[in-house]
Amino acid sequence: MEIPAFDPKELEIVKEHRNAFGGVIPLFNTPVSVKENCRALAKRRPYWQPLGFTYDYVLFSPRVNPDNIARAFVYDGTFVPGVDNKSGGSDMFGIEWVYVPTAGGSMVKPGNPLISDAEELEEKVVWPDLDSWDWEASSKANEAYLGGDRFVMAWLLNGWYERLISFMDFEGAAIALIDEDQKDYVKDFFDKLTDFYIRLFDKYLTYYPQIDGFYIHDDWGSQKDTFFSPEVAEEMIVPYMKRVTDYLHSKGKYCELHSCGQLARQVPNIIKAGWDAWSPQVVLDADDLYEKYGDKIILGLGPVLPGENSTDEEQREAARIGKYSAQVFLGYPSSEVKKGGNQALKEDLKNLIRQTRPEVLYTHNLADKHATHVGVLMRVLEALRELEPEELPAKLIGCEVWRNLDWLSDEKKVVMDVSENKELQAQLVDVFVSQVQGGKNYTDAILGRRAANATFYASHATDKATGLSFGMDMTPLMLDEDLDPSEFVKGFLQDFQENVAGLISAMR
After folding, report:
1. DSSP sequence for 73-134
2. Nearest Cα to 238, choosing from 174, 159, 145?
3. Which residue, 299, 326, 344, sits at the end of a domain?
4. What was the pLDDT predicted at 133?
């Protein structure tokens, strides 16, 4: 295939479409359709770099499959915004899932796994009756949704290991992969599961002939390492994956694996399993992966540009590494945060505070030099001032980000000891790959600032900490709606001015 020379007419927008996540995406005057370009990608000769589900792909996760409702991940021609993807319920095997709002997804209902030993798989697993699903109705409902010129990717959310976890819980499944008394039962189950998936995919291809490829989930690792060794994966999972990819390739379909975690050691197995592409997470060294495996598998990486805001995925990675109790995305752009009068944003913040009831609320400080940071504080303050007294936190603390707070008078500093978990602090900063492009060394700078605070906090006393972070107590602003934020922060500046001037006067 010969790729034509670039023509400026390709930058002309010919129409727009909405992607699965609600964004409006322009379609340009390209020499071939988006679908044709993605098909060319499978042959390593695309006309331009495809941008996956945000632009080029149609995300297809049909309602007819009970897994998609249970996992809160329905994307099809019947999708109802604000209703779908907040579900839960029984998956295709009858396993109960519960929707977790703070995670934006579902988890297996805890406390009562279907089985405790792989020997029970044969007896207790009830295989779905695919013929009982209303494929005809689903096919008709999705004709328009799948009928465009974009690349249609159908999703399967529970692969082999994930499916085993849903029956046994994580610990039980991990043990079953290596326990000599259970391994053969797992292999037998995976063999039958593979046969079942092939029948399921055959249904998909029969009723949705527009499908170009399949995107299959099977998480294999944490942020630090894999759940199991490469040897275990090669023996217990890879052969069954390979049967599925071989089948889909025989139908002319593209195969992409979604598998989260620090999987550098597992990449040879992913390749052996026959996947055309795999999407590594940001915790992995993409350059190193490309150097080693770029000629063997397509690496699905999100574009990272200098100065771009951190992606939602980076935020999610930070939450996983830091073991956050909860993480909420409100989705407001910076422009909305920096201006007042957004009633919806204020109500969202009020509801968030009501639901979480923090004892201390940490946010940005009034002396930060980043406009969006100050905007966040002002919107938080507006929300707090409309809450009832019993709904308020005990303290409102503004933290250091783009400007140090070491200039605050010592008696006005909120001093936070952050001496512990230096490695975790570094990991949490390192996650935000989009922020360090172009040479920004935030990790050393942040840890260095905290070390400096610890040493310089007390002029001559022995250091009592190896890391301190300073905050600004803004509680009075929360409690007194008549107190002006500008005048409030001027008070801190005046204190500093008077301290400096007083010391100079005393030396005359």
Report:
1. --BSTT--TTTTTS-EEE-TTS-EEEEETTTTEEEEPTT--S-SSGGGHHHHPPPP-GGGS-
2. 159
3. 299
4. 98
